[in-house]
Amino acid sequence: MAWVQGGVEVRGSLADVTELAFEEADPVREFPSYRGQRNFPGLYWAATMLRHVGFESWLERDHAISMDFDPRVMWFASQPFWLSWTSPEGVRLSHAPDYFARRTDGTAVVVDCRPEARRSKPRDLAKFAGTQMACEAVGWDFQLVGEIDRVRVANLRWLAGFRHPRFAQAGLEEVVGAAFAVPGPLVGQAAQVGDPILVLPVVFHLLWCGRLTTDLSRPLGDHSLVSRVEG
């Protein structure tokens, strides 16, 4: 396998990498953008690490948002390494997984993003299977993920707009938290604290940070029931 360290490509075997922090790795591939391009690459600013993470599709971006929102994820990186191997049929294969994430309990997960409708090509399936085998060999989890539930991902996209620390206002956060100690409707409860234009960004930031909670399986709206997370 190969990875980038200090701007230089490094090569090694699986046995050499179990202690490496791939969650902080530089991407082994670039994310080019050009006229007529059919996919949608870009950079997502992750509040978890206060740094940009690359993506090559809206699906990858949505999963970056999801990992950024997940309190179990402490750090993640895109295109963290190349895996290379020879298939039983003698075909040389290589693959750069989409993400490597480190969880708060120290475990790791390698993530590939691919819609279910686009998983039929034998070569792609062989790459995913080979990646899973490599992960199992070193004790990492492997996830092949598709589209996130459309309601949940719409809610996450909205809340991600308030992920930046600039939306944290210490004095107001305490008042907002106290207001939602008793569950109440999103806008109505916020209006009791003050001008919704000022208060709602703080509410959304606290929802993103997990200090407030609501049912994200339902569309987020004025009457969504919001409550404070105790502890």
TrEMBL record:
Alphabetical keyword list: Endonuclease, Hydrolase, Nuclease
Keyword Nuclease: yes
Origin superkingdom: Bacteria
GO MF annotation list: endonuclease activity
Protein name as catalogued: TnsA-like heteromeric transposase endonuclease subunit
Organism annotation: Streptomyces phaeolivaceus
Lineage, top ranks: Bacteria, Bacillati, Actinomycetota, Actinomycetes, Kitasatosporales
